[in-house]
Amino acid sequence: MAGRTVVVKVGTSSITDDRGRIVDAAVAKLCSEVAEVLAGGDHVVVVTSGAIAAGLQVLELTRPSDPAVLQAVAAVGQSRLMGHYERAFASVGLVAGQVLLAPLDFVDRAQYLHARQTLRLLMGLGTVPVVNENDAVADDEIRFGDNDRLAALVAHLVQAELLVLLTDAAGLLTADPRYDQEASLIEEVSEVDQVLAMAGGPGSARGSGGMASKLAAAKIAAWSGVRVVIASAERPRVLQEAVVGTPGVGTFVRPRDGRRLPARKLWIAFALATAGKVVVDAGAKRALIERGVSLLPAGVRQVVGDFQAEDAVELAGPDGDVFAKGIARHGAKELAQWSGWQSSRLPDDVPPEVVHRDDLVILP
Ligand code: GLU
Questions:
Q1: Assuming Cys at both sites, which of 43, 217, 234, 295 could form a disulfide with 123, CB separation 3.0 to 4.6 Å?
Q2: What is the C-alpha to C-alpha distance for residues 96 and 92, in angstroms, rounded to an integer?
């Protein structure tokens, strides 16, 4: 495919009014900007929230706190949300294709490749993929951040050059503008970690994102070699300006130099919630970091938490410092029993890896 690929993410608060209703004008603004970028020869994937908001509107509910109810509400709202996009894209001569993704789609190789193929084909057909989390079966982004991380993983999936995170602020500011009139836009961030501490808590009551969630997404993107712009959804021509890199359009986050993490490892490192911790000895820590080996029971000193096989766990050194994250192949109970054991002592049908090298990421 010729042209650049751009992923643009819009959150609930940017496309709803203060009563939580989807605002057609806001969807139309985004869609007409997408049309212009496409006319310039680039490709665009839209990642949008708003299913819950649309569902609440139909069901005449206020946002419940129970994630299970939110999942059901999202199922009601998703098709309505798509209706808004279909109409807005039709008015600029475009066709939308809905793609719903769940966290497991980034972990399972076959599913990951299918999702990539579908997204590429949709773009190849001249349509605009419109992605949301498959809230009915997975509620990760409901809990953690209104699709920000999903958008970063999608950017990696389609090998995008640029991820545009649209929000209700002008970008990352030097201070909270509600309390400090001097707050000004930070135009470029080269090390996300340094600014993560500055960002406040969750955003508005209608979405669940906020700047910390944007930066967490920017970090995933930076580790995948994708440039990020955090900018205001309301700014005229924001998408076109983000694509050409107009100074002042928002906050640019520079991609990290060096090796790009594969998607599965990105997901393990930055998106999967951890269920426990495995403390390893100094020798194991060194071997994991320097030689990229799998963790075996012999190196395990202590097991913390009550995780199951296939749960994500943190790995800490003898000093307690967390240095890696991975997916455990055994539950905490079995592992506690086997810690310090040579692999030859394990029952015959038990795979020796506590965390396999393919499921292990050394953290920055
Ligand atoms: N995927 C959800 C939606 O589209 C996330 C937004 C939220 O948590 O409010 O509504």
A1: 43
A2: 11
Q: Report the sign of the C-alpha dihedral through residues 140, 141, 143, 149, in that order.
A: positive
User: What CATH number matches the domain at 273-362, 1.10.10.410, 2.30.130.10, 3.40.50.150, 3.30.450.150?
Assistant: 2.30.130.10
Distance of CA 229 to the CA centre of its chain: 15
Name the residue at shortest CA distance from atom 4 of ligand 1.
49
* CATH code reported for the domain at 5-264: 3.40.1160.10
Q: For ligand 1, is residue 140 a contact (CB within 6 Å)? A: no
Dihedral pair phi/psi, residue 209, rounded to 5°: -90, -95
The residue written with tokens 């050194």 in the block is: 317
Distances (CA, A) of 30 to 34, 127, 240, 271, 305: 6, 15, 10, 27, 45
Is the CB of residue 151 below 6 angstroms from any atom belonging to ligand 1? Answer: no
Cβ 142 under 6 angstroms from ligand 1: yes
Pairing of strands 43-48, 5-10: parallel
CA of 237 to the centre of ligand 1 (A): 25
| Ligand 1 pocket residue status of 141, Cβ below 6 Å | yes
pLDDT in tens, 24-44: 999 999 999 999 999 999 999
- Domain ranges for the chain, please list them: 5-264, 273-362
Q: What is the pLDDT of residues 84-121, one digit of tens each?
A: 999 999 999 999 999 999 877 887 778 888 999 999 99
Q: Which atom of ligand 1 is nearest to the CA of 54?
A: 10
Atom of ligand 1 nearest to the CA of 48: 4
SS3 content of the chain, % helix, strand, coil (to 5): 40, 20, 40
Query: Residue of the nearest CA to atom 6 in ligand 1?
Result: 146
Mean pLDDT of the chain: 90
